[in-house]
Design brief:
The complex is a heterodimer of chains A (about 150) and B (about 80). Chain A has three helices and eleven strands. Chain A has about 150 residues and is of the alpha+beta class. Chain B has about 80 residues and is an alpha+beta fold. Chain B has a three-stranded antiparallel beta sheet, with no helix packed on it. Helices cover about 30% and strands about 25% of the residues of chain B. The chains are: A alpha+beta (about 150), B alpha+beta (about 80). At the A-B interface, β6, β7 and α3 of A face α1 and α2 of B.
Chain lengths: ~150, ~80
């Protein structure tokens, strides 16, 4: 199957499709997605719907920006996507970038939890009271940090 | 909106498989117990609304704006 997205025409292989049984909060009808790398950077990934091609959500690996990030998530919710140990899960967080880049935020409260083996996923709630739905995020700084590591 | 008056210990049945029970009332705080099928998400309303708002903002993020950030700061 080929789909037309903001990233151009993309071939979708069945074994790359991630199933969100519950959809994503507010987008409950979207149940099938693929993961795409943002061209030219490993920092941003996109969750691209393959039902409505206009829907794609940018995400980051929270560990890259918040090394101590450790969401407490209900065991039942994890079992629902067949995750039995933390090693079974890939956790990504959705970001929003307004025109004023300084107001970029990341949702640490409701991460996207993926079981890559079974290609199941859900947007789950971290019970940690300190995690915010709108945590400020400095994407530009991350790229600077990275540049310095290599120089 | 259907409005019902309930006392502590009383409940409400919604369709098949959902029950909402008032467990206790202390001042302005009400403890509610909810039984719902496993595939039904139960969330605090304000959390659901705020996450929904953020998700809808996220789908409006353009590819170009991210390109701009990383072009200004090449890796």
């Amino acid at each position: 199957m080929n789909i037309d997205t903001r990233f151009g025409n993309i071939e979708v292989f069945d074994d790359k499709i991630i199933h969100f049984k519950n959809g994503i909060l507010g987008l409950e009808e979207q149940k099938k997605f693929i993961l795409l790398d943002h061209p030219g950077t490993e920092i941003i990934k996109w969750l691209q719907s393959i039902q409505n091609y206009d829907i794609a959500l940018p995400m980051i690996n929270p560990g890259y920006f918040f090394p101590k990030y450790s969401p407490k998530i209900s065991k039942d919710d994890l079992l629902d996507i067949n995750i039995k140990t933390p090693g079974d899960a890939v956790v990504l967080c959705i970001i929003t970038i307004p025109q004023d880049l300084k107001k970029t935020t990341v949702n640490l409260k409701a991460p996207i939890v993926i079981n890559p083996k079974d290609r199941l996923a859900d947007q789950l709630i971290a019970e940690n009271s300190e995690y915010s739905i709108r945590e400020p995020l400095n994407l530009a700084k991350a790229t600077e940090d990275r540049r310095c590591e290599s120089c | 909106m259907l409005v019902l008056t309930r006392k502590a210990g009383e409940g409400i049945a919604i369709g098949k498989g959902i029950t909402v029970k008032v467990l206790s009332i202390e001042g302005d705080r009400i403890k509610i117990g909810i039984d719902a099928p496993k595939d039904m998400k139960v969330l605090r309303l304000e959390l659901y609304q705020e996450v929904t708002t953020e998700n809808k903002k996220a789908i409006n993020v353009s590819k170009d704006i991210i390109d701009k950030i990383f072009l200004n700061n090449p890796q």
